[in-house]
Amino acid sequence: MKRLRVAVVGVGALGRHHARILSEMEGVELVAVADSQEQRGQEVATRHQTRWVADYRDLLSERAVDAVSVVVPTVAHRQVAGAFLECGIPVLVEKPLAGNVTEARELVALASRHHALLQVGHIEQFNPAFQAAKKAIVAPKYLRCERTSTYTFRSTDIGVVLDLMIHDIDLVLSLVKSPLRRCEAFGIGVMGQNEDATQARLYFENGCIADLTASRISPVASRSLTAWSAAGCVTVDLHQRTVQRFSPSETLFQGTSPLEQAAQPGADLEALKKEVFGRFIHSEALSVEQNGADALTQELREFTHCVVSGQSPHVNGAQALEAMIVAGKVLEQVANHQWDGNPHGPIGAYPFVTTPLRKAA
User: Fold this and answer.
1) Which of 1, 33, 135, 300 is the most exposed place for a label (fewest CB within 10 A)?
2) Which of 99, 208, 105, 203 minimizes the C-alpha distance to 161?
3) pLDDT digits (tens, 9 = 90+) for 63-80
């Protein structure tokens, strides 16, 4: 059976992993890697027994590929992914879909016009902890997401909203399934021209509220999601891949309430404290399926399967566009926020990056 001819455009820190996984995938032939840096491109190509091209457009003129994985800086997503979509070639483009909402809309329109598959690399959708938690989270009323990392000096062409927070925006939208009503946000830039830490609150039409924290100037890395609903609370550690569910017990619903018990003469408050989790609130660790494949491998497997089968991926262009639209609204609020009531114009792209802050950094 003919193997699917796939190329990777951009083999930097993440793209080289795309190349490695695709080169080992059954039914797939890694026909080329494209990268403007010869040494890097040649090194990856040699390691995976394929060829290097300096210009991705050579692959278009040669009609050498059946599908392509685009792992270039975000500012180039529209140009590179768009060129392949215009030729009807299926594209997996790393998140975020594009550098702004306008370009994201253009990519989705190109994919539709040329009947080309467009998948976006929102990799947390393939995190087994999230997959387990999603089954347990029904009609959430409140969500809280935190995503922090140390400063990596990568993805500096975009700020933390499109770099990190976009992951959680996508997860929240997939859980809430309701239009955004409004959002509030503020942020701060420390290392350069873009925001490095941002706090956002999203209000949805169905009444759900989501608080999102993202920082890439944190001394520690963390990825967590907590969801509250009428059924209880689910906490997810996306890094450690653990899920914990807390739910009210029958005793809490039908028996004498713990507050009433505490108010009785001679009540043993210390004993009641120890019974909060167990007697009144059930706590259980949910099973997280470990299928042996990392999330990126699962994502690339889905991409190649969808190319062959014609099925729609977990995160298609339209879904990624919705996340981009919300991210755009967050960025608007960040840009409009005035620290200390400062009415003066921005330093660089954002009004919150002030001269004293940058000197302090």
Assistant:
1) 1
2) 99
3) 889 999 999 999 999 999
Of the candidates 97, 70, 72, the one whose C-alpha atom is nearest the C-alpha of residue 84 is 70
- For residue range 282-336, what is the model confidence (pLDDT) as tens digits? 899 999 987 767 999 999 999 999 999 999 998 999 999 999 999 999 999 999 8
Q: What is the pTM of this model?
A: 0.89
Where does the pLDDT of residue 340 fall: very low under 50, low under 70, confident under 90, or very high at 90 and above? low
Strand partners, 187: 198
What is 125-291+326-335's CATH number, 3.90.600.10, 2.30.40.10, 3.40.50.720, 3.30.360.10?
3.30.360.10
Alpha helices in 73-127 (DSSP H): 77-86, 101-113
- Tell me which long-range contacts 233-238 makes (C-beta under 8 A, separation of at least 24): 234/133, 234/136, 234/137, 234/286, 236/129, 236/130, 236/133, 237/129, 238/124, 238/127, 238/129, 238/130
Q: Is 174 helix (H, G, I), strand (E, B) or coil?
A: helix
Helical segments of the chain, H only: 15-24, 38-47, 57-62, 77-86, 101-113, 128-136, 160, 166-176, 250-254, 258-263, 269-275, 295-309, 317-336, 355-360
Decide: 17 and 78 in contact? Cβ < 8 Å: no
Domain ranges of the chain: 4-123+294-314, 125-291+326-335
Considering the domain 4-123+294-314, what is its CATH architecture? 3-Layer(aba) Sandwich (3.40)
